[in-house]
Amino acid sequence: MSPEDQHHHSDHVSVNPLFARPGEDSVASKYHLEDDGMLPETAYQIVHDETMLDGNARLNLATFVSTWMDPHAEKLYAESFDKNMIDKDEYPQTAAIETYGWRILADLWNAPEPEKALGTSTVGSSEACMLAGLAFKRRWQHARRAAGRPTDRPNLVMSSAVQVCWEKFCNYWDVEARYVPITEEHKTLDGHDLASFVDENTIGVVAILGVTYTGMYEPVEKISAALDAIQAVSGLDVPIHVDGASGAMIAPFLQPDLVWDFRLPRVHSVSTSGHKYGLVYPGLGWVVWRSAEYLPEDLVFRVSYLGGEMPTFALNFSRPGAQVLLQFYLFLRLGRSGYTAVQQAAQDVALYLSSGIAKIPAFELWNDGSDIPVFAWRLREGYTENWTLYDLSDRLRARGWLVPAYPMPDSLSNLTVQRIVVRNGMSMDLAASLLEVVEEETAALDRLPGPLPHVVEKSAFHH
């Protein structure tokens, strides 16, 4: 190539528009590695453009997961992308901050002696639940073996509206799942008829502080009282784990007098999602035991890793440390008053929306969002044969809003509801816009001259 041609070629490359560069001028391979790479800005643009097809996270009212953090949090996040939570020898301050986190939660959840509590961070509250379930099973096994009793038929009692992670726990660790059905009369696991489900093989009862389907609290104090009554008759001492994925970061601030936590001696452990109403980006969970005796020592591994020895109790090993730092940042940044203000604002929006939905003749509320800022509604019985809540969900999605419709659990599977999750970042102004869209689309559906065709009615619900 002559110097003149080389100069021309160089000029051509330097001014070549991004979308005519190699990589952007063809279809990028998604299933195998190409022989050659591409410029970083080209690779970035391809991935960036692919994700443009995702929905707007702020308008996603299906998810509980945080979709907004402030600029200082994002700066801290960027500074700590590379920290490995498991490598406590290399990152001792990150390890210390993890301890600060669960100690703060032990205190927030009224552990009798927070300094004697034990906890850990996890990738999410699903992992936290798995760890709590394992602690239940192992303590039950130890007690049964000590009494010379068999350990081959453990069971766990929970609501039929339980989150799917508990189904996974029972499946993965060979525990019989006993589901107490929810009904129109008993909308949550409330202690009713609990004696029919509990026996000598019951490793524990799960109480949900904020049911995923509807946002309602299960009355932990009532469940504990029911188990007290069972123990008085049978001698069975059955512990409770509180799955507080959402509610454990709401109730201490909005319903401080509600007794659901370690104030109840039967509550052995509590879990929550830092990345839900803990207000941290995904993924972060926490689990805390009221004291070390409730986490069997033989579940804790002491490992040598990268020059140090450390105890670990987790399903995952290497995992990000950044979210743990973000949680502590928020504890410092907000304090009790700040968390109360943020959660109250979310609940105010939820109550505004639910009251607006309740005024639309087509709908009947299942609950109103006065527990966690989440509520669900159904189509009023006999209102119409022309459309369903799935149709309304589709029309809202076309307007940018993701508001899922789905069937309730097995015993109520003939009942379809829609649910709204209000998170930090959902302003009252946005809520007013949403309510206007719901009213408009409901009115449009009401004007249909006949039924919409439904080839397959799908559930739009995801845990």
UniProtKB/TrEMBL annotation:
Organism placement in taxonomy: Bacteria, Bacillati, Actinomycetota, Actinomycetes, Micrococcales
Reactions this protein catalyses: L-glutamate + H(+) = 4-aminobutanoate + CO2
Kindly indicate whether the keyword Transmembrane helix belongs to this entry.
no
This chain belongs to the protein called: Glutamate decarboxylase
Question: What Gene3D superfamilies does this protein's entry cite?
Answer: 3.90.1150.160, 4.10.280.50, Type I PLP-dependent aspartate aminotransferase-like (Major domain)
| Obligatory cofactor(s) | pyridoxal 5'-phosphate
Residue positions, PTM N6-(pyridoxal phosphate)lysine = 276
A GO CC annotation recorded here is:
cytosol
Presence of the UniProt keyword Transmembrane in the record: no
The top EC class, named as a word, is lyase
Alphabetized UniProt keyword annotations: Decarboxylase, Lyase, Pyridoxal phosphate
